[in-house]
Amino acid sequence: MRGEDQTWSHDKVRMGERAGQFRLLVVDGATSSMVDLPSKGIVLIGRAAEADIRLADRSASRRHARLFLDEGLVRVADLESHNGVRVNGQAVAQVHPLQPGDVVSLGEVQLVLYSAADSAARSPSAEGPGPAQPIELVLGERVIVVADPALLRLYELIRRLAASELPVLILGETGAGKENAAFALHHWSRRTGKPFVALNCATIAEPLAESELFGHEKGAFTGAAAPKPGLLETAEGGTVFLDEVGELPLAAQAKLLRALETQRILRVGSTKEREIDIRVVAATHRNLEKEVETGRFRKDLFFRLGAASVVLPPLRDRPDEVGVLARRFLTQACAAHARPPLALSPAFLEALGRYDWPGNVRELKNTMGYVAATVAEETVEPQHLPERILAALRPPARSGSAPAALAAPPPPAPPPPEPRSAEEPPTPVPGRRFAPLAEELRTLERERMVEALRVTGGVKVRAAELIGMPLRTFTLKCKQYGL
Ligand SMILES: Nc1ncnc2c1ncn2[C@@H]1O[C@H](COP(=O)(O)OP(=O)(O)OP(=O)(O)O)[C@@H](O)[C@H]1O
User: Which residues form the Sigma-54 factor interaction domain (predicted)?
Assistant: First the structure.
């Protein structure tokens, strides 16, 4: 940096020299780039050649806006530009403070402020390889961690969709982060500050679905003692998130379609329509097209809800994020258990990558909660994973090249002499000492198990797999043989 009151040069901003705690995503026409912002200084943004962040889009003025950075604070100022500066959809006059996650529009150009996660500062070698620059989207009380390039692109798309009023359908497996994505759509839209109301359609009883969504009048049905507004009404001005929309009963689907088309709702038992101003974001883990084919989901509603759709990849397809999220969730869980943070061994991180995470991020979060509650040591190792996960780990990519933490444990003590059965007397044969076959088999079995345990660093499930023994039998025999 050249001086407190001097502008950063474009190159320095892009190179991230003395980069501070903030980064800026710049979506300028068809191009987008991530810019490390300095910790202190002034950054000029516009089409002018002297701009630090130079824009191409014609809707931006030559000298459009300035960012002021100082001691963890970021502010933006409009330089009397032609198309003005908007923050989260609101026009700003003069200098306006920014928070991570804020979307700044300069004409058609969109800027998103991110805080650079501190994990980048950690030595990657200390905890195995991983993405160097995860970013945190701080949306109110929600923090969304993004480290995978595909997810980063997805959140860029979400930010662009947020500026529109299109209904959005979020597709993805359970626990993949669909609600987080829906919340980001709300947060970055003009509706931020208004309610974000979520309903899991799978949890409402069929007869109550319509009343839940559209409300009811007094006496509309048995038990309707008082009039009650529905979810769509309570979200007035904001966003309704319909999770598992595929589970919505057909009658409620018809009514929802009408509400979306007319922006009016009819409470159950009422004849008076009420105007509503809401945006609907729906999500499902189902293949809705198939549901349409089988008649379980209305085709017209599918097209209406899916005007824009985003697909959230499952966690197993975001390998860069597993370690980052694991560390984050573990830190949170340790804090919740009032214990100091635990370290994750490279072998543990490697093992996390060999699991498919069918429950996605939620499962990872729960697993780290389990680890924080159960591990007595200071470093978390693969064997600390729940049995269920250990049993489902894929074999390591390169056998025989286990990381250091998987290195062979000290060889176990020799097996205790097996008690000889009275029914199996040894048959003396000159030149060779024979033991009963059952005993020889036991010895062989034990040797093989010891060997397998050594190769897999003590991971029983892998060891059992290696020698083709069912895990239960392996565990039982481990006890019998005192392994
Ligand atoms: N990128 C992320 N960063 C931090 N936390 C995350 C992230 N993705 C998901 N989570 C957390 O994982 C849990 C599950 O996420 P979420 O509820 O958004 O998933 P979902 O796909 O909506 O699940 P479901 O299909 O069961 O409704 C939540 O606690 C959420 O905060």
Answer: 144-373
In the reported structure, the alpha carbon of residue 67 is separated from the centroid of ligand 1 by a whole-number distance in angstroms of 33
CB contact at 8 A, 353 and 393: no
Q: How many CA atoms lie within 13 A of 192 on its CB side?
A: 19
pLDDT digits (tens, 9 = 90+) for 238-295: 999 999 999 999 999 999 999 999 999 999 999 999 999 999 999 999 999 899 999 9
The rounded distance, in Å, linking the Cα atoms of 75 and 104 is: 11
Confidence of residue 409 (pLDDT cuts 50, 70, 90): very low
Ligand 1 site, residue 365, Cβ cutoff 6 A = yes
What is the per-residue pLDDT across 451-472, written as a single tens digit (0 to 9) for each? 788 777 788 888 888 787 888 8
Residue 75 CA to residue 226 CA, distance in Å, equals 49
15-18: which pairs have CB atoms within 8 A and are 24 or more residues apart? Answer: none
Here the ipTM equals: 0.98
Euclidean distance between CA atoms 415 and 5, whole angstroms: 76
pLDDT (tens digit per residue) in 376-406: 999 999 999 999 999 999 998 764 443 333 3
In angstroms, what is the span from residue 360 Cα to ligand 1's centroid? 8
Is the CB of 177 within 6 Å of ligand 1?
A: yes
